[in-house]
Structure formats: C-alpha cells, structure tokens
Amino acid sequence: SLEYTPGDRMVMVEGDEHLTIRIAKARAGFRLTTRGASHVARVLPARVAPYTAHLIEKVAPDLSKFLICPMPGLLVRLDVAAGDRVEAGQALAVVEAMKMENILRAEKTGVVKSVSAAAGDSLAVDQVILELE
Q1: Is the pTM above the cut of 0.85?
Q2: What is the DSSP string of 12-76?
Q3: What's the distance, Cα to Cα, between the start and end of the chain in Å?
Q4: Above 80 in pLDDT, residue 116?
C-alpha cells in the first residue's frame, strides 16, 4: 500500500517489505531516492511524451584538459608555465574573489600545453586559465 499526497517529500511503501522513498522535484519530473539509488521519473504531458524519443542527447564537452576560473575574480598567482609537468592535486593558480583567495588545483596529471592568463588579470566565470596536453 502507498499513501501519497502531492507535495509529500517522503513516502513509505508497505508490502512484502517496507520501503522509504525520498521525493524531490527535478527539471522534468521527480527524483526518487531509495536504498542509496537515485532515479529520475519524467512527467510530461501526454501530447509531448511521444516526441521525446526523437530528441538528441546533448553530450557535454570534455573540459578536463582546461583549468577554468570557477568565479569572477583576480588572478593573484600562477604557479606553472607552459611545458611544466603537473601532478593531480598540485596548486596551479590562486584566484581572489570577494577578498578570499581560492587555490585552483590540477584534477589530473599532465603537462601544461598553454597559459591563457597572467597574474594580475581580471577573470570572468568559466574563463580558461591554462590548458593541459
């Protein structure tokens, strides 16, 4: 048995075994989480649902080779130059935003291919600071 009222954030299902499901709104429906697994239930109007089979899935570009500024700020320090070898977790740059210094670190091991910014530059959100090979 299941008791659900629209707006509930949690439901309990009773049957052969008890199951608790957390419900959260998602972009096109609901996210249901239970037993450590999360599932998206899409809820669409009946006239729209048949057309979703024709939509092309957008693949996100691979940005793992770039060090991208996460917030607008001032590039205080750049700790590497083109040709330098870097290790995962190594500090690459320091960006000051709202009077706080944020250390940007390498996500993976590699070699710096090119540097697109210099210390003292004002950076925008998602601006490329450097590229790895």
Answers
A1: no
A2: EE-SSS-EEEEEEEETTEEEEEETTEEEEEE---TTTGGGGGGPPPPPPP--TTEEE-SSSEEEE
A3: 56
A4: yes
Q: What is the DSSP letter of 130?
A: E
Residue recorded with tokens 């590497």 = 80
**H helical segments located in the chain:** none
Domains of the chain, residue spans: 1-45, 66-132
CA dist list (Å): 108 to 46, 60, 98, 103, 123: 45, 19, 28, 15, 22
CB 81 within 8 A of CB 93: no
- The 3-state DSSP class for residue 2 equals strand
Domain 66-132 falls in which CATH fold? OB fold (Dihydrolipoamide Acetyltransferase, E2P) (2.40.50)
Q: Look at residue 53 in the predicted model and tell me its pLDDT.
A: 87
pLDDT at 128: 95
- Residue 46, classed as helix, strand or coil, is coil
